[in-house]
Amino acid sequence: QVQLVESGGGVVQPGGSLRLSCAASGFTFRLYDMLWYRQRPGKEREQVALINSDGRSTAYVDSVKGRFTISRDNEKNTMYLQMNNLKPEDTAVYYCNVNYGRDYWGKGILVSVSS
Q: What burial class does residue 99 get, using C-beta atoms within 10 Å of its C-beta: 0-12 exposed, 13-18 middle, 19+ buried?
């Protein structure tokens, strides 16, 4: 069965950095586009970044461009989100997503940006 497990979240001060990881199993990871979403307090879940199956193409929501970098290691079945220059408005639960017939989600991990 498909499993997506996020890690790497936590509390960080504004301007700080975190790297999220998403460990995937239950499907052929290297064949599928992968996405990061987030849900900020009181807001709808939004797509943050996408990476295609071979890692050569990426896309970002405007609010994180130049600060976040999505990447993947198809040998390790793992996707990453490097988040730099974090802002309080980046505070959210971050989710890993794949569409494998239907949408699958990780349980999410909290990123809190606060001084």
A: exposed
Strands 3-7, 10-12: pairing kind: unpaired
Strands (DSSP E) along the chain, which ranges?
3-7, 10-12, 18-25, 34-39, 45-51, 58-60, 68-73, 78-83, 92-99, 103-105, 109-113
Name the 3-class secondary structure at 6. strand
Per-residue pLDDT tens, the chain, 115 aa: give them: 999 999 999 999 999 999 999 999 999 999 999 999 999 999 999 999 999 999 999 999 999 999 999 999 999 999 999 999 999 999 999 999 999 999 999 999 999 999 9
Dist CA 70 CA 42 (whole Å) = 25
**Nearest to 36, CA basis, from 115, 113, 111:** 111
Q: How far apart are CA 30 and CA 61, in angstroms?
A: 23
